[in-house]
Design a protein that fits this description.
binds zinc ion, single chain
């Protein structure tokens, strides 16, 4: 049973409720382009995870089988007092491991490269919660190995992990302000807003997952202050809507410096040094300007109402496709969802390009639509007229409606999609 997959409909429902509250109050917490980028990163992370999630499970299973100190049968985790105590112990210890994983994810460059995705949004709402990395599988599992060394069953820790992640969803909101004493015990919207800030005072603070007590214990707690309003985002802004680049940006920065560093010690060491550290020779030749928070402006290229409607409609299709892929993955595994995932990823990429009004965005979208139509024809050939015709019709109707939408945009907008000049 995949608890996180079960929670997704509730996540989406909560997001819609927050969006309605925002619109009614006129608080401007949501921008369509930023929310689409965050949700695209979330869809990318989930679907990419279909092909990578085995790695941590295999590593954990191996450690548990060969090195566990205590043999804890699953039957110990029942509804008795001992069973409940064991569940609570596992959940608290997992949260402690999460604290250190999260802290290192900010403090060590290569781990920050994976985690930065979650922090790039310059808004803060429930869509930010779903903005997750696609490369976290590389190292995150290492931080939980102590629990497998102790001997907690894999089945228990998988559930505990899911509960920990699900808990963290709701704290990504500005609708809830302060929660009194709870702000001092649990991770709450207020103290997690601090964690997403780029203000000097708030940087590298409040790493907890469920309990903020860890931060108070290890000296990384900072309270949200009325006289220092949180500025969300990262010091080196993403400044585009490409969900793939969101995952690669910090790796690219590190690779840039590693290639130009003269000493091998620096070329290798840069990946494991404190986040922000640069080799002195590279720093001297390629200095980076510091961000001026006093004049901070969100990345927000404007688009026409028609284009925004087109992108929103396409993104709604992408969400439906992602849900269908999730369903198919649950039934048949990763191999059957590879091609649908590739099509979905192409869609997320082109939607980001359209929102940025990149010069080639329209051509990419046209090519993508023609490709989808081609897939429809292939499915017709593969499954025959009885079943294949359904796939073919869906692909055909979708392509035709999308092409009609693009054509309408072109004819009604002075700012033509075709051959539009980049604002850069
Ligand atoms: Zn973080
Ligand atoms: Zn967060």
């Amino acid at each position: 049973m995949d608890l996180i997959a079960l929670a997704v409909p509730f996540f989406l429902l909560a997001l819609v409720v927050e969006l309605i509250i925002d619109r009614l109050r006129g608080t401007g917490l949501y921008r369509a382009n930023d929310a689409i980028n965050s949700l695209s990163a979330g869809i990318l992370s989930t679907t990419f995870g279909y092909f990578t999630r085995l790695l941590p499970l295999l590593a954990w299973g191996f450690v548990l089988r060969n090195f566990a100190l205590i043999d804890m049968p699953l039957t110990w985790f029942d509804a008795s007092a001992r069973g409940i105590a064991l569940w609570v112990t596992a959940a608290v210890l997992w949260d402690l491991c999460y604290y250190w994983f999260h802290r290192f994810s900010h403090e060590i460059s290569i781990l920050w490269a994976a985690h930065a995705v979650h922090h790039q949004s310059e808004d803060y709402n429930l869509s930010t919660a779903l903005r997750q990395t696609s490369t976290g599988f590389l190292f995150s599992w290492i931080f939980y190995l102590p629990l497998f060394l102790i001997g907690f069953p894999l089945e228990v820790l998988v559930i505990v992990n899911a509960v920990n992640l699900i808990y963290q969803f709701w704290v990504h909101t500005q609708v809830v302000r302060r929660m009194g004493v709870l702000d001092r015990i649990l991770v709450t919207p207020s103290n997690h807003r601090v964690h997403h800030a780029q203000n000097e005072r708030y940087i590298d603070k409040n790493y907890g997952g469920i309990f903020i007590l860890w931060d108070r214990m290890f000296g990384t707690f900072e309270d949200e202050r009325d006289d220092d309003a949180v500025i969300f985002g990262v010091r080196k802004p993403l400044a585009n809507w490409n969900p793939f680049w969101a995952n690669l940006q910090v790796y690219d920065y590190l690779l840039f410096d590693a290639r130009r560093a003269k000493r091998w010690r620096d070329k290798l060491g840069i990946w494991f040094r404190r986040t922000g550290w640069r080799p002195t020779d590279v720093e001297a030749r390629y200095p980076k300007s510091r961000v001026d928070l006093a004049h901070f402006e969100k990345f927000d290229p404007s688009v026409s109402g028609g284009l925004q409607a087109y992108v929103l409609a396409q993104f709604a299709v992408a969400i439906v496709v992602a849900l269908l892929i999730a369903e198919s993955f649950a039934r048949q595994g990763a191999a059957t969802v590879l091609i649908p995932c590739l099509l979905l990823w192409a869609q997320l990429y082109t939607l980001g390009s359209l929102n940025e009004q990149r010069p080639n965005a329209d051509m990419l979208e046209l090519l993508r639509l023609l490709f989808v139509n081609g897939v429809g024809v292939l499915l017709l050939q593969r499954y025959g007229i009885a079943t294949g015709a359904v796939f073919w019709s869906v692909c055909g109707v979708y392509t035709f409606a999308s092409l009609a939408g693009l054509g309408l945009l072109k004819s009604t907008s002075k700012q033509s999609l075709i051959n539009i000049t980049s604002s850069e």
